[in-house]
Amino acid sequence: MFNNHRLRYFVALLIIVVASLPILWTVQPVHADSFSASVNCPNGIKYSFTNDKSGASQYYIAVTDKAGNGLGSTAFTGPIYEGQGVKDDTFNLVIVPVPGDLKATLRRRKFNSDEGFTEVSSITLQNCWPPSLSQPAGSYIQPTEAPSTSFLSFTCTPTTVTIVLSDDKRQPLPNKITFTDKELLAAGKEGVTRALKDLGALSIAGSQGWDGYYYYAAWNGGKYNANGRGDFARTFKCLHRF
Predict the structure, then answer these.
(1) Taking the model in full, what pTM does it have?
(2) For the segment 16-27, what is each residue's pLDDT rounded down to a tens digit?
(3) Distances (CA, A) of 3 to 6, 12, 14, 17, 121
């Protein structure tokens, strides 16, 4: 009799456990993109993520401070398919944060679509920047005069950079070629090239640093025989608010 009761007890327990399995299974998120991020003090961000959603998606990551100020972001990715992702990539913050925690946000949209990006996940990060060195967020512009021999000069605004070319007598040409931070950020390391008819082509790429956005511009071809080197190339910096 004792064995029968014991057997019925274990059968009942087994039924309860088996019946609860669908409930336990359904609480797991479906198509939830995995995302991790950490700070390489003082201003580096290391991140990884995986697309767990069917089809191709496009991503970018932005970091904000406690006041909601944008501090820096990645370029938009190309198509990332289900099961694919980015592992242990890095970028740098370019604006000094206010004291308090930072937030890294992963955003996604369907690849090759005009729809806006939606937030997928966010992570709270340590702010390594010393509070005593923090400053109010704003638009910071650092003009730099071009070398006297350079064929390229530039001006910055909080959202754009404009390049002016010079002729063989170092006189500025009327052409003003303007690029937006947004398009350069989207282009990533490949940069953007503009055809300039008889002047050849101007290429520019940007990268993020702690104290500003660094640009590299090169002028090639055209009637002034630009070769993209020496005085036909230039590296410069603008401090921008993203």
Answers:
(1) 0.48
(2) 444 444 433 333
(3) 5, 14, 16, 21, 53
